[in-house]
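Good morning C.,

I know you're traveling, so I'll keep this short. The sequence:
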Amino acid sequence: MVKLGIIIGSTREGRVSPQVAAWVNEQAKKYEGIQTEIVDVQAFDLPFVGTGAANPAFGEKIASFDGFIFVVAEYNHSITGSLKNALDTLRPEWANKVAGIVSYGSLGGARAAEHLRGILGELQVADVRSHVALSMFTDFEGWQTFQPADMHLANLTTQFEQLLRWGTALKTTR
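The tokens, ready to paste straight into the viewer:
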């Protein structure tokens, strides 16, 4: 069994990322060998790095997973500040684990996903190739209600397969 945290990195009011995370979580339930839990960065009220004491509950939560699926909103061609702060808050808790990316934005969140891949590499997180890129124009009604196109299920299924293989292999390194 590979335990994956579905990380919601957006904290903006009116965000749609909880809808996306819920969809990923529902799809994961259909996939044998994977156990998921939604982790909302907003719920941990993390101080900006260097401005206060770290939240030990956040570190414990992240340490409990074998890997992650990052639900990534693209803001200004990159990831959100809240996700970057959450990543920077910890180091060993992220290391030697696997990650998948489900991004969204006007171009499917592709630029944010690419920025995230570089950050994950520095944190020693192995990101899988399969990527779900959701368009704000076609997968969200009125930019608010998530209605994913069926075509995304194939990419998500491939991502689950890759996460299971890599997550199982990386357990041996921890």
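Safe travels,
E.
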